[in-house]
Amino acid sequence: MAFTLEWPTSVVRIQSGSEVSLYGYVQDGRAGEELQVQIRHLDSGQYWRPDGTFGDVMNHQATVVDSSGHWRLMHTPQAAGEYEMVVVYTDAERKTGARSTTFNVLGDTYVNPFAVSADPEINGSIDSGSDEFDDANLMDNTEFNKDSAELIEDSLLSASAASFTLEWPTSVVRIQSGSEVSLYGYVQDGRAGEELQVQIRHLDSGQYWRPDGTFGDVMNHQATVVDSSGHWRLMHTPQAAGEYEMVVVYTDAERKTGARSTTFNVLGDTYVNPFAVSA
């Protein structure tokens, strides 16, 4: 199964109050099939919801609209700022892929994302049933997001069903290439030895840094909960300068799954060339 997220891209600037079509293509998609979409206002951490409000995460339903596999979600942004969009699609064999992007909205703010009252939460999400990408299983496969993204076997992502954080790195972090660092966060009620799935993608080349020490098609790293506080960690030594995207997926004991993402920058020399990967 392969699908794309064509628009928006990270260079897109949308005028607030203007209706736009967020879209992509599903290979062999059938008209009427649905995809799950989350849209998060990054400065406030709040999600834009189908009911026309900002708040806890709630999925939008995008739809395949024709026999070419073209999927579409009509969206009218109501607040200026930078957004993250995550799209999840499950094919007929229950294999699932995820795509993500960022985009910017310019202009007036008609619905204030900062006016949402704070509730106890972890990383902008709260356990609830309404925001799940309704499936029971995840990560029986070691890879996800292939064809620029691999498949998640028997699974779907839910950005708030499982409570955990991605603490470091953040988008302001600059790491020296060749230096070993700890990528980490916390799992609520995590048990030592539990694993999380991690992808690290070099954005300029589009190639993924893999556990075998190469760049290429996506391959998951395994992060581990290391103590009773729920602290999870992945040791990482970046080998090439550039901007990276990191996506972390965790499935709790009830088979509910959450996803967190961030970007970070690596400075210095390049020891393994991400652009040398053959197409």
Structure description:
Helices cover 0% and strands 40% of the residues. It is built from no helices and 19 strands. It has strands at residues 13-15, 20-25, 34-41, 46-48, 54-55, 60-64, 70-75, 81-90, 95-106, 152-153, 174-176, 181-186, 195-202, 207-209, 215-216, 221-225, 231-236, 242-251, 257-267. The strands form 2 sheets. Strands 1, 2, 3, 4, 5, 6, 7, 8, 9 and 10 form a 10-stranded mixed beta sheet that branches. Strands 11, 12, 13, 14, 15, 16, 17, 18 and 19 form a 9-stranded mixed beta sheet that branches. β18 (242-251) and β19 form a beta hairpin.
Number of distinct helices: 0
Q: Helical proportion?
A: under 10%
Based on CA atoms alone, the radius of gyration comes out at: 18 Å
General shape:
globular
Keywords for this entry:
279 residues, mainly beta, nine-stranded mixed β-sheet, 19 strands, 0% helix
